From TrEMBL:
Ranges in coiled-coil conformation: none
Highest taxon listed in the record's lineage: Bacteria
Protein name listed in UniProt: NADPH-dependent oxidoreductase
A single GO molecular function term of this UniProt record: oxidoreductase activity
Listed InterPro entries: Flavoprotein-like_sf (IPR029039), FMN_Rdtase-like_dom (IPR005025), NAD(P)H-dep_reductase (IPR050712)
Record domain NADPH-dependent FMN reductase-like: where: 3-145
Listed GO CC annotations: cytosol
A Pfam family assignment: FMN_red
Amino acid sequence: MHNIAIISSSIRPDRKSHRLALYFMKYLNDNFLANANILDLKDYDFPIFSETLKIQKSPSKKLLDFAEKIKKSDAIIVVTPEYNGGYPASLKNAIDVLYEEWRHKPVGIVTVSGGPFAGTQVLVSFQFSLWKMKAWTITEQYCVPDVEKNYDEEGNSLHKKISEPLTEAFLKELFWCIKADKSVG
């Protein structure tokens, strides 16, 4: 079974994007598709990025734990809200502190907004940052508009007839990339 890390990137007190991290963890685990765990950046509470992990003299235990979980994962799902057309500083910080851990790692992007645009404006800038880190972003995206109307606080979809086909297509692409990555590696 694949190991998938789900990064919940918002650290705001009243964050809504975390609902999607919970949704994907439950979906993957409940359907026995993968061993999925959430890497909650709110819990990690990293200091502002100053140097990559590779050259830090005494990295924190939390940072070493995060890096190890990214490295050991077969793929990553990143759940990000859109903040003013971009992604949260907490996510940029967590991406930039690592380098080798991202190399050729399949990454699925889930964007969220409280309004009708589903976080789609964040896709280009976030995908570009991942490409520069040599991560392999999958072609399927999972974009959620009006998050509060579509997922509850426990990560349950309020419209399964809509969410499940989208989830299946997203995960099919992610699993295909995992398989392709393993056949090359």
